[in-house]
C-alpha cells in the first residue's frame, strides 16, 4: 500500500480521491457521487451511472484476497438466485487507485420498503441453508481483521490500543476452541440490519466481505447484542428469534462469542475515532469494556 494512504487512513477526503481516480479509469462520472457509509470501507452511490462504488482501506495482499472473495461470493449468490447485490461485471475490477482497491456494484435506489429484523432472520435462514460454493472460503477468524486494525491504529490513546490488544489475546484461543467444537457452514460474518436493502417489495442481504465458514450462531450475535447495547426492544428480538428459529443467548458459549463480537465492533470504530462523535463513542465503549459493564448503552454510528 502506498505510504501516504497508510498514514492518512480511510477518511472522506482520501476515499473520495480514490473514487475519482478509479471512476476516471472506468469511464464513470463521479461528480455527483454520494457518500453512503464510511467504516471498514467507503461506499458511494453514483445514481446517474447506476453504480455503487466500494473503496477499500488499502490494496495490501490481505485486502486483495478479501475483495476477490467478495466478488466471487456475490457472483455465486446471484447464480443461486439469492436476494443479494451483484458486481457490475461490465466494468473491469477491482481497480487500484491511490493505494486502495475499488470495486463497482449494482446501484439499488432508495425504496419505501423498510427492512425489518424478521427480514434479516429469514434471509439468514436462507443463507445458512445454501451449500458451500465450489471455491475455497476461509474459516471464520475475526481476529485477523482486529489485529490488523490494532497494528495500524492511529490518533487514539496508546493505553486504549494496549487494552484492546490484551483483550484480544485473552479471547482468541477461547474463540477458536468454541469454533472447533461447533458444526460449521456458510456464514455471512457481518449480519445486521444495516446490511439489508429494500428493493421494490423485496429485501436484499448485502456486503460479503466477511463471508466465511463458521458456526451459524455468529450471524445471530449482532441482533442479540443490540438488546443490551443499542436498546433494541425485547419484543423485536423475540420476533427475530421466532423467525430464525433460535435464540443465541441461550447458548452456553454466548458470552464468549459476544465478547469477541464487541471487541470487533470497538476496533472497527477505532479506525475512525480520531475526533468528533466517533471519538466520543469510542470512549464510551472503552470505558464499558474496561469495567466489564455488559449493559452500558452504545450508539450506532
From TrEMBL:
The keyword Isomerase is annotated on this UniProt entry: no
Alphabetically ordered keywords of this record: Transferase
Pfam families tied to this protein: APH
Record InterPro entries: Aminoglycoside_PTrfase, Kinase-like_dom_sf
Sample GO molecular function, one term: transferase activity
Residue ranges of domain Aminoglycoside phosphotransferase in the record: 54-257
The organism's place on the tree of life at top rank: Bacteria
Gene3D superfamilies: 3.90.1200.10
Name recorded for this polypeptide: Aminoglycoside phosphotransferase
Taxonomic path: Bacteria, Bacillati, Actinomycetota, Actinomycetes, Kitasatosporales
